[in-house]
Structures are given as C-alpha cells and as structure tokens.
Amino acid sequence: MRHLSTKLLAGTVAGSLLVAAAAAQADRSDWPSNFTVGTASQGGTYYVYGSGWANLVADELGISGGGEVTGGPTQNLALVHTGDISFGLTTMGPASDAVKGESPLAPGVPMDNVCALFPMYETPFSITALSSTGITSISDIPDGARIGFGPSASTSDTYFPAILETLGVDFQRRNGGWSDLGGQLQDGLLDVIAFAAGIPIPAVSQLEVQTNVNIIEFTEEEMDTVLENFPVSEFWIPASTYSTLEEDARAVSMWNFAISRCDLPEDFIYEVTKVTMENNDKMRNMHRSAETSIPENVVHNTVLPFHPGAARWYQENGYEIDESLIN
Question: Which residues form the signal peptide (predicted)?
C-alpha cells in the first residue's frame, strides 16, 4: 500500500511540475525568441560590457541573445526606437537629445520608443595641460587655446566644447585619437586636452611618466553651472588615479544607461532587470566598470522614461521611481 501511495504521490508531484512548467511557458508566450544589444566598436568598453551582459541575460533566461557592433550611443538610441534592436547602451547626453527630437540622426523626431533599464557606469569629463603652460584652472585657459576634444562626434567632442563655451572659454577645436592628442600636447601643438573617457586615461598616465602635467579640476561654481545646463552628474577623480594628484579632483560625469524598446513585454523586461540587478558579481566579472551597475544608481536617470517592467522591479525592491518617469 505504501508503494502505491508513493507512486500516487510521485504522480501528483510530477503533474504539479508539469502544470507549473506549462504556466511558466504560457507566461513567456509574448516574449521575443531572441534579442540583440547595440554596443559600439569592437575593443571598446561598450562592446565588452554589452556583449557580456547579453550573454548573462541569454544564459539566465534561456533565450538567444548577443551584442552587435554599432556606431555607439546615438545610433543605439535610433536603432532601439525603430525596433531594429531590442536593447542598447547609451549616455544621458545623446538620450536627452533623442527625447527632445534633437538627435543628429533624426532631427525633429522625438524618440518615444526608448526606455531606461538600469545604470551602467560614469564617463568623467576631465582636463589636462602641461605644467609648463602655467594653466592650473579653467579660467587660466587663454583665449584662442588649442584644445583637443578626442575623436570627431565622440561624447567628448559632442559635449565638452559646449561645456567650455558655457564657462566662457574661447578656443580652437582639434580632434583625434587620445594617444595622438597626448603626443601633440607634449610637443606643444595643443594647449589643453579635454577628455571624456574612463579613468585612468592611458594617454594621461603616459604623459605623467614623460613630463609634468596639471590635472585641472572644476571649481564648485563652475561645476554648478555645468550641472544646471547639461545632463551630467557631480564626480570626484580619486587622488589615487594619477600620481600628479595630491587630493581628489572635482569634475562632472555623464552616466551610461542600458535601454530597451518601450513596447517589449513587461514581464520580460522585469526578468531582464532582475537578472542584471541581482547578479552584480557576474556583471563585474565581465567588466570591472560594472561595479557601479547597481540599483542605488538608478537615480542618475532623469531623462528617459523607465520601462514599466524595470520600474516594477525597482519598486518591489525598495527603490523609488517617480511615476512621471515611468512609460
């Protein structure tokens, strides 16, 4: 009799499992069968981060997904908005432009099918000059100074010139790769380099070895002006970043956020957000910048609406999302 009861119990349990599995499968009926994450060029942080994140989500949720090489933040916004890709990575500056219909890829077209998912990491804006120039502050930069702003159309080249103009700096604009600009600074062909890049910046570290440099910080008043006029956040460059620094230097940074199509299923995005926010150890293993990919940093998005699925996860876990910022 006991043997028969065990069989009946086993059958009941098996049946329950089948019902649960069927229910789970039914819940996924409107999920996409695969997804793509728009990143940037190979070899950059976006490509490594985005591909790693795509693999994590694909493995945890059991669907096919991967990273795709793109033109970076601005193009990712456009590709997500049009539905060509499901997910992308972007910075708050291009996101702000896209929402207002000021994207250079689609002038006059507000991108309203782009929703925020989670915070990634910060891109600091920092300024470097040779000590021999005597430039120790932004106000010291002479009129007509030759300033290197990085690759053309990069985040640095898009926003740093406008930031310096707002602070009253008159300059001649120069573009190029960071290493090339570092060489020009050392040779006296540039007066200043305005970087928007992850720290430590290899070009600055190399300059420190070869010559004396000044890492120029924003004054508190300059920082407040920039915060008021641009989609950036307060940032401190740790003194340990460069041998030149004796104490932390005041700067600003632009946050990077992962984005998705707003029309993706809420349950799907809830699970994507859950996997990402509850596995920071795995995120850090794919790229060390993911140490700031934590829910506490969700407050740094004030530009894009959050996907309802992402917002639900944050709210369920005690993180406040303003209702006006939920799509």
Answer: 1-26
pLDDT at position 43 is 60
In a domain, 12, yes or no: no
Instruction: Output b/e per residue, 171-202; b: 16+ Cβ within 10 A.
Output: beebebebeebbbbbbeeebbbbbbbbbbebe
CATH of residue 108: 3.40.190.10
Q: Where are the alpha helices (DSSP H) in the chain?
A: 2-27, 45-61, 73-82, 92-99, 155-166, 178-186, 202-210, 220-229, 266-277, 280-286, 308-316
- The model's pLDDT over 252-277, given as tens digits with 9 standing for 90+, comes to 999 999 999 999 999 999 999 999 99
The domain boundary residue, chosen from 207, 239, 254 = 254
Which residues, 6+ apart, have CB-to-CB distance to 26 below 8 Å? none
Residues sharing a CB contact under 8 Å with residue 126, sequence separation 6 or more, in sequence order: 194, 195, 196, 199, 201, 204, 215, 216, 237, 249, 251
Per-residue pLDDT tens over the stretch 42-55 = 766 788 899 999 99
